[in-house]
Amino acid sequence: RALVLDYLIHHSYTETARAFAAESVVRHLDADGDEISRPEREGDKVVLPDKLLAEASLRRSVQERILSGNVDVAIERLNAHFPDILSSSSKPSPVPEPEPAKAPVATAVPGPPPPIRTLVPLSVDPARLYLDLRILAFIEASRTVPLGNPLPPTSSSSSPEALADARDFNALLGLISELQDRISKLEDPEERAEYTEELNRVTLLIAFKDPERRPAVSKYLTQSRREDVANEINYAMLYRAGQSPVSSLELAIRQTYAVFGYLHESGYRIPSSAIVPPGVCLSSAQQT
Questions:
Q1: CB atoms within 10 A of CB 192
Q2: Helix (H, G, I), strand (E, B) or coil at 221
Q3: More confident residue, 98 or 165
Q4: Taking CA atoms, which of 47, 64, 240, 246 is between 20 and 30 Å from 169?
């Protein structure tokens, strides 16, 4: 339960977390299957802290704006609720070490496990985060067809008015100038080169009247681009709040993968199925 709840809160699925916490309460049954009343024991009840749920809801609100392409609103919410994310003067909050195990108490509150110190998988540098958001804002402003809508049929008989480009080129050029200025202020020359190259590629969007039809640039207009930025911002919000940017479930999977890889490289034999715990199934790739 703790692993599942940590995963749900980590990804801001607050309503699902509430439902899971309510439905996963330990119920004591008699021989006939009827529920009976017994004193609560450790682990019987799950209580989710209101502060944790509130923070997850705020993180979700930021992610939803990014996923829907409303980058400017997402930046406003970040500045209002998570001012350290895009502030150049912000310093990361220390990630606390797991607390030592305590003796069982009468009323247990088994919420998500304490954060585990780990490498941050994505950048949390405010300058990079702001650039990633503003580049996404440029991409969104370069669209000629809303994401998810079918592309209109092309026709040589279309009127000039129908083919008129509705994009605000003055605003787009202003965004390019802003991005160039921000990139020039990056201290790391490798980062400057990286973002300069990225900006050069992305600005090709305005060279086409119908960028959604152009394979060279249409890849920037996909939903996956929004998802990548939303995940990066979520990592940063968790990191700045002193929480692990990686869920405990993902860390457990990473550890399992590493252990199996080490066993395979070292020539250890995987235990036979006779001693594998119930409910665990080794794939053919792992068995070989």
A1: 14
A2: helix
A3: 165
A4: 64
